[in-house]
Amino acid sequence: MAMLGKRRTPAVRRERQVSRPASAVSAEAGTLTVERLAHDGRGVARNGEGKTVFVDAALPGERVEVAIHRQRKRYDEAHVRERLSDAANRVGPPCVYATRCGGCHLQHLSIAGQREHKRQVLVDLLGRQGIDAPEDVAILAGDDAGYRRRARLGVKCDAQGRVHLGFRARGSEQLVDIDSCHVLAPSLAALLPRLRAQLESLEAPRHVGHLELLLTDADVVTLVVRQLRQVPEDEQRWRAFAAREALACALRRGRETAELVWLSDQPRLVTTVSGCRRPVSLALAPGDFLQVNAYINQRLIDTLRDWLAPGQDDSLLDLFAGIGNFSLALAEDAARITAVEGSNAMVERLRDNARRNGLDVDALQADLSDPGRAIDSLIAEHDTVLLDPPREGASAICRRLADSGVARVAYVSCDPASLARDAAHLLAGGFVLSRLAMADMFPHTAHLESLALFERPARSSRPRRRNEGHGTPASGGRH
Question: Region Disordered: which residues (predicted)?
Answer without folding.
Answer: 1-27, 457-479
